[in-house]
Write a structure and sequence with these properties.
With about 140 residues, the chain is an alpha+beta fold. Helix content is about 35%, strand content about 15%. It is globular and about 40 Å long.
Amino acid sequence: MGVTAGILSAFPESLKGAVGLTPEQISLVEEDQGVALPEDYREFLALAGGGGFSALRGETYAFPEILGIKDHAREILEESAPGQSLDGCVVFMAHQGYIYSFIGPAAKGGKTYEVAEGHDGVHEGAASFASFIHGTLRALYK
């Protein structure tokens, strides 16, 4: 069992109704992002990347809506953090089209970050995608 599966198994209620992606769909996400997906994110997609994951209800994170999300995030990044780039990053979620969460390049540790329209800069989040999911679940299912 991988890190993400282990975290999710501690919160089984979060997976009720969740739909996993096939290897082919995960490959489409990877192709769309233009970078190798981190293993913890890949594992999440296999478990709940098709929707129904309660901890991210209301967010854009599921296939196929996630396709093309990196292009939208680039527009916000250009406005909020000129000179920054999403090269080597994986955009995994959007909130109402003005806040984007992404995983930084593996070479820089794979931390999660957030960029928001109307806010200056990029803000650091969790140490990894798995840590992001764990923190979200802990907050939701106290």
